[in-house]
Amino acid sequence: MGTWIVTGGAGFIGCNFVRSALREADARIVVVDKLTYAGNLQNLRDVAEHPRFQFVHADIADRAALESIFRDHAPEAVLNFAAETHVDRSIDGPAAFVQTNVVGTFELLEAARQHVAALAPGQRERFRFLQVSTDEVYGSLGPSGAFSETTPYEPNSPYSASKAGADHLVRAYHATYELPTLVTNCSNNYGPYQFPEKLLPLMILNAIEGKPLPIYGDGGNIRDWLYVEDHCAGILLALEKGRPGEKYNFGGNSERTNLEMVDLVCALLERARPGRDNPALARAGVPCYADLKEFVKDRPGHDRRYAIDASKAREALGWTPAHDLEAGLAATVAWYLEHLDWCAAVQSGRYRRERLGLGDR
User: Fold this and answer.
1) For the residues 284-309, what does the mean pLDDT come to?
2) How many angstroms separate the CA atoms of 355 and 88, rounded?
3) Annotated catalytic residue: which of 33, 84, 107, 135?
């Protein structure tokens, strides 16, 4: 039984991956997480007593901590989910994004390089470093086309630039040091345990509380939506079948505008918890959730459209998403309605769903 270090495993995608890995693989999972505002042990409460799970509270930018972790656990794989991820926050404070996403990835690569250098040849060949990245590194698409693994990087926010820098470091460590690395780039994830600053949980929670549903600009920005469990399945396949030095794109083949997504959320909420029966809507003076929509000033540098071509992952790894958007979104809305205690706990007074990311404009 080998050991996998999963950095950022107390965050949204990371905690969902931990569940998938404990269910689908036989590895021991060591989660390393700094526990910033979006990383929370509440996200791992149901696996905390699993015999193949261990948690280490540490920052991936802390070299001494990483050296100790690698020495104690001798991993055969490192999966780097650790990142500052919210574009709006990166506009207000880019330094944290550079520190975690770039410096942290560098320190993790260095620790992995030193670890691999001391391994026997067979162990060295089995080792993998998998960098979990985003489609935002590619920039913005026009009305047609999709991002492939060969699309040039053209990031437009401090967040996407920091992720692009990390991806380039991972690629360079393979080319220069022959570290067995993989990079995966995904489209917009959604599903359980997503921190409420992101579009879908923000809309769900604001709606049931009768608060405005802020839609940036004209609401026409398009994203490709991927259910988080499908993304985690792809990462497991990349770890198992991916070729070192390669990158793989994962997308849900579900392009929708932000406005369409908000309308879908409102429709699902009307079925699950009708607005006419919600006292919060009565206090807001509206009869239905859709009447809470409010167009607000756009985000600076807001990319217009993303879309993923996942044909390489399909052909090389045998991966396809198992959830269509309607089913995945219905499951997501139901999860948040059933876990309002989790939503309150992870916000804990530090974030009250206020608008971020206006910059100086």
Assistant:
1) 95
2) 8
3) 135
pLDDT value at 47 more than 90: yes
Catalytic member of 33, 88, 107, 136: 136
Q: Does residue 138 carry a catalytic annotation?
A: no
What pLDDT, in 10s, does the model give residues 316-333?
A: 999 999 999 999 999 999
The one catalytic residue in 159, 216, 289, 336 is 159
135 is catalytic: yes
CA-to-CA dists, residue 18 to 1, 9, 15, 52, 345, angstroms? 16, 7, 5, 11, 21
Is residue 236 in some structural domain? yes
What pLDDT score was predicted for residue 89?
Answer: 86
Which phi-psi region, left, alpha or beta, contains residue 76 (left: φ > 0; alpha: ψ -120 to 50)?
alpha
Q: How many residues does the chain have?
A: 361
Task: For residue 29, list its beta bridge partners.
Answer: 4, 53
What tens digit of pLDDT does each residue of 194-225 get?
Answer: 999 889 999 999 999 999 999 999 999 999 99
Catalytic residue check, 326? no
* Pairing, β 128-134 against β 181-186: parallel
Q: Is the pTM of this model over 0.90?
A: yes
What is the per-residue pLDDT for 330?
98
329 inside domain: no
Domain membership of residue 30 (yes or no) is yes
Number of structural domains the chain divides into:
1
pLDDT given for residue 358 in this prediction: 57
Angle between the N-to-C axes of helices 105-117 and 158-177, in degrees from 0 to 180, rounded to the nearest 10: 20
pLDDT of residue 190: 98
CATH number at residue 175: 3.40.50.720
Instruction: Look at residue 90 and tell me if it is in a domain.
Output: yes
Domain that holds residue 90: 3-191+227-253+305-322
Please enumerate in sequence order all residues whose Cβ is within 8 A of that of 210, keeping only pairs 6 or more positions apart, or say none.
278, 280, 281, 282, 283, 284, 286, 292
